[in-house]
Give the backbone structure.
Amino acid sequence: MHELGILMAVTRQVMDFARENGISEVAEIVLEVGEGTGVVPEYLRTVYPAAVRGTMLENAQLVLEIIPGMAMCENCHEIYNVIQSQGACPACGSRAKEILSGQELNIREIHVPG
Ligand SMILES: [Zn+2]
C-alpha cells in the first residue's frame, strides 16, 4: 500500500528531527496532503497506528490538512478545483491548465507535549 510507504518516510523524518533537536516525545504531527497526490487521507489514518507502533511516535496524533487541487485554465484563465471538475475547465472545457496547488505532501508542524 502506497500510503504505508509514505507514512514510514514521514515518521522517519519526524524521528530524525526529534533526535537532532533533543525532543523525546511528540504530541502531534501535522501533515499537508494535496488532493492531486492521489494519496487517500482515510488510508493514511487507517495505517498510521501500525506505522508508529513501538516507536517514540506511538502516542503522537496525526493531523491531516487537505490542500485542494487547484489549477488555472490556460485558455480562459478560470481558476478551478481539478478533482471536482475532473481535470477540465468548467468554464470552457479545456484541459490545458497550470497546476496551482494540490501536489503537496509535507510535514507542516510537529508539536511537542505541554
Ligand atoms: Zn477555461
In short: The longest strand covers residues 28-34. DSSP finds two helices and six strands in the chain.
